[in-house]
From TrEMBL:
It catalyses: (6R)-5,10-methylene-5,6,7,8-tetrahydrofolate + 3-methyl-2-oxobutanoate + H2O = 2-dehydropantoate + (6S)-5,6,7,8-tetrahydrofolate. This is 3-methyl-2-oxobutanoate hydroxymethyltransferase. It is found in: Cytoplasm. Keywords: Cytoplasm, Magnesium, Metal-binding, Methyltransferase, Pantothenate biosynthesis, Transferase. Homodecamer; pentamer of dimers. Its cofactor is Mg(2+). The active site is at residue 179. One of its GO terms (biological process) is methylation. Binds 1 Mg(2+) ion per subunit. 3-methyl-2-oxobutanoate binds at residues 45-46, 84, 114. SUPFAM superfamilies: Phosphoenolpyruvate/pyruvate domain. Catalyzes the reversible reaction in which hydroxymethyl group from 5,10-methylenetetrahydrofolate is transferred onto alpha-ketoisovalerate to form ketopantoate. Its EC number is 2.1.2.11.
């Protein structure tokens, strides 16, 4: 199958095909997700937390995002791949935003960028779109503004959130991600927009869903938000495998006859 394109992704809304999206940060995981037939993969700046071990998404750099987007891009045959613009690469004016986003598109096999912001980022969204760079807007809880918002909280300012989503669409965003907003409000925004909404902690009336891969797989260290559903418990699986290996090495059971060369 060929790559999912941005227009195809948009058309899933009208055809009622729910969109599944997950994050990936490297080749082997991206290949697995793509092989499983997911519509979209996000190289999220959540990488800052789940891969790099920082306690916010703020420290990850553009060069680091590009390095990981290259790995994901090399793995993917089918999914639409979207890359987060890390803080503060979309906040330095339209010209700098185009410079930064175009590096992502030129240096990786990824097709679109995502940036946090709605109404107050409309000029940047419009600038990127006019440069031929598709943009997914991210409204609601915006983790890059954690210090302003005072933590990771459900966002309830309906008037502002509706305005953000509509402004992003009018500026040319091909999709709007809704993070941590009440389900009825996410449903209302979804019905008001022509472009697909992708929800995380935003109920099941969005046009699609996204989760952080490590949360879904049970690989996250520490706090897992309430909106996550864990479909596997790989931390335990991995720990069990490593303990079994350690015990086999200690007892001389590994390597056994099948794992060694007799001559
Ligand atoms: O960086 C990320 O993983 C995200 C998701 C929370 C959607 O933006
Ligand atoms: Na993000």
């Amino acid at each position: 199958a060929s790559r999912v394109t941005v227009p195809e992704f948009v058309s899933f809304k009208a055809s009622g095909r729910k969109i599944s999206m997950l994050t990936a940060y490297d080749y082997s995981m991206a290949a697995l997700l793509d092989g499983a037939g997911i519509e979209a993969i996000l190289v999220g700046d959540s990488m800052s937390m789940v891969v790099q071990g920082h306690d916010t998404t703020l420290p990850v750099t553009l060069d680091q995002m590009i390095y990981h987007a290259e790995m994901v891009g090399r793995a993917v045959q089918h999914a639409l791949v979207i890359v987060d613009m890390p803080f503060p690469t979309n906040l330095l004016g339209v010209h700098r935003a185009i410079e930064n986003a175009s590096r992502i598109i030129k240096e990786t096999r990824c097709q679109a960028v995502k940036l946090e912001g709605g109404a107050e980022q409309a000029d940047v969204i419009a600038g990127l779109v006019s440069a031929g760079i598709p943009v997914m807007a991210h409204v609601g809880l915006r983790p890059q503004s954690v210090h302003t918002m005072g933590g990771y909280k459900v966002q309830r300012d309906a008037e502002r959130l509706i305005h953000d989503a509509l402004s992003a669409q009018e500026a040319g965003a091909f999709s709007v991600l809704l993070e941590c907003i009440p389900a009825p409000l996410a449903a209302e925004i979804t019905s008001k927009l022509r472009v697909p909404t992708i929800g995380i902690g935003a109920g099941n009336q969005c046009d699609g869903q996204v989760l952080v891969l490590h949360d879904l797989l049970g690989l996250t260290h520490g706090y897992v938000p309430r909106f996550v559903k864990q479909y596997a418990h790989l931390q335990q699986t991995i720990a069990d495998a490593v303990v079994a290996y350690r015990e086999d090495v200690r007892s001389g059971q590994f390597p056994g006859p099948e794992q060694q060369f007799d001559k």
